[in-house]
Design brief:
Blueprint: H1 2-32, H2 41-50, E1 52-57, E2 63-71, E3 86-99, E4 111-112, E5 118-119, E6 125-129, E7 133-136, E8 143-158
């Protein structure tokens, strides 16, 4: 009888230890697995009616958002900037002239960054259209002019 009790106690301890190890392993696996989100083109298109496609806080509490924006003729010439976040703008449809207000740079100062993107500064304008990407750092004033509708773009807000 004592042998049976000893076997049951040992078996229970092994099961408890195994269950604890499995729970800990699963929790660690889930905590380190990144969350991947997919949006079909239908959901992206529908987001333009709402103005927002995505928003999430990371583990450090930083919020990341993807906004869906449409600009029309009435929006032309409105200078604005973003004070606390960088905007990665992906043009989805239409076209516009993207202008960085300010004093124009002297000729020959345009350069590319390490990834081959063109650096632009105050007073420059560029025609942007479907497929173009513009990265706008915080506190960089900019404006859209000569808008060809429908001018729609996604804005990925990053810290």
């Amino acid at each position: 009888m004592q042998h049976i009790r000893k076997t049951i106690v040992v078996a229970s301890a092994v099961v408890a230890f195994g269950a604890g190890w499995l729970a800990k392993s699963t929790a660690q696996e889930n905590a380190s697995s990144p969350v991947i989100t997919y949006f079909s083109h239908e959901k992206v298109d529908a987001a333009f009616a709402r103005g927002r496609l995505f928003g999430r806080k990371d583990r450090q509490g930083t919020t990341y958002s993807v906004l869906a924006a449409t600009r029309g003729k009435s929006d032309e010439g409105v200078v604005h900037s973003h004070t606390v976040w960088t905007a990665v703008v992906v043009i989805m449809s239409g076209a516009a002239t993207f202008v960085t207000p300010g004093t124009a740079q002297s000729a020959g100062t345009a350069a590319t960054d390490e990834f081959g993107g063109q650096l632009i500064g105050g007073g420059e304008s560029h025609r942007v259209s479907k497929g173009d990407v513009v990265i706008i750092p915080p506190d960089a004033p900019h404006v859209y002019r000569n808008i060809e509708e429908p001018f729609s773009y996604l804005v990925i807000q990053t810290p």
